[in-house]
Amino acid sequence: MTRAVLIAGVLFATCGNSPAFAWGCQGHRTVAILAERIVDAKTRQAVRDVLVASPIDPALERFCFPKDPDPIVDAATWADDVRGVMHETAEWHFIDYPLTIDARQAGFTKFCPGGNCVIDAIVTQFKKLRASSDKTEKANALRFLIHFVGDVHQPLHSVTNGDRGGNCVPITYFGETPTTKNHGGSFSPNLHHIWDTETIVRFMTAQKLKTNAALAQRIIDDGLVPTGVKAATPTIARVRGWAEASNAAAKTIGYGKLLPLIADEPILTQPLLSCTGNTKIGDRMMQLHESLDAPYEAETMPVIEKQLALAGQRLAAVLKAAFAN
Ligand SMILES: [Zn+2]
User: How far is the CA of 167 from the centre of ligand 1 (A)?
Assistant: First the structure.
């Protein structure tokens, strides 16, 4: 667990060791809170009814604690918790567009092998939620949907540079030097996790936003979300657009504002399972001595805030479509 998370842990819900899980507890929960605020009362109740009809297994180990009493907010991080037991879902949280290519030109299917990426996952789980009459299948599809609409808006989940979406890029973060965290060769702090969690936690601490609801309120007060949305079915074309915009932000800001800049890695033909792969990418990136602090976050936090807002409003539109008659 990073120092930033430890500091913040006394203030609000924190997160376990989930290195590649996209937005951390704060980000996912904030997206859910925003969506809940935006949808109409009838949709909100329909979402709750489906979740309550088949509650999360109390034996499942949860990374975010304390548990949120609101079933919609609590549902937002379930997909990360089940990765350890539903191994087939591991690839559903991201799409690995190589940093070197233009995602808008490239098509996505070759980066979504077997339909196992966040774009297909959102479309598939939406259809399952609509079609299923099994209460557990329906509740789980809804939980996946709430989570993945968040994930696709985390820019580092729509890009990779042969580095597991920045998970293999060690960063000295506000003076905290990176160390190897496990035998898989991942580092902490690293670029991906800073986007997931540390930047949001630092922002909340600095702004005295003690809860995720307070962060959601800040995003609303900043005028970033509409008061209502129209229903919108998540088609492949629509979700691709979301992923491509995330990809653009990852390129121009996520990687583009790093000092020093990181050279383009060759496109890998096989998924990278560890930072020891791709000719010890983690060790090679360590030699760059990447360091970031306030100037970088002055660029990234507005992007993160905007992406959380978009995720919240798009999730609201998707939920309205899911529960339309
Ligand atoms: Zn995720």
Answer: 14
